[in-house]
Amino acid sequence: MDKTANPAPLGLMGFGMTTVLLNIHNAGFFPINSMILAMGVFYGGLIQILAGLLEYKRGNTFATTAFTSYGAFWLTLVGLILAPKFGWAEATPAAFMGWYLFLWGLFTFCMFFGTLRGSRGLQVVFLSLTVLFILLALRDWTGSAVIGQIAGLEGIACGLSAIYLAMAEVLNEKFERTVLPVG
Question: pLDDT (tens digit, 9 = 90+) per residue, 129-168?
């Protein structure tokens, strides 16, 4: 019997908490600050990549692809924000940033199909993340603050769904019964 711990809750928490914090910003409540950037690098970025590598060891191609890709998303997003501030590159125009977000939405939509053999909780995370990326792309393509606020609120819900799923996996395993249902 494999006694290797399940790394998915760690990756889901890295994704979920970082997503909630960034989308509190997207919803217009707070500006981007060092807390969000640090979470993006360390918890959203590095921890998700670590979770992906641990899933690799378990032979889980879907989770390896998801966690390492979204970890890289957070690292590249922070890079896109910081590179112009350090004079390393010009800022990315909003319309082009929309394409970056759209491609992540397309990737997420494709990954959503891999969740159809998983729990409803996982399906909610990936479907809501697809919607989030599309809304953020639309925000950048149109310049609409309203779409940005809607995206922020939807992103908070997406992040909370990942936190719920992570805690369900931890608690259900620990108590050896369904404490939090995932469908």
Answer: 999 999 999 999 999 999 999 999 999 999 999 999 999 9
Task: Give pLDDT, residue 3.
Answer: 80
What's the half-sphere exposure (Cβ side, CA atoms, 13 Å) at 39?
16
For residue 160, the tally of other CB atoms under 10 A from its CB is 17
User: What are φ and ψ of residue 143, in 5° steps?
Assistant: 75, 15
For residues 14 and 20, the answer to whether their CB atoms sit within 8 Å is no
What are the domain boundaries of the chain?
8-175
Which is it for the CA torsion 21, 101, 150, 147, positive or negative? positive
- Whats the size of the chain, residue-wise? 183
pTM for this structure?
Answer: 0.96
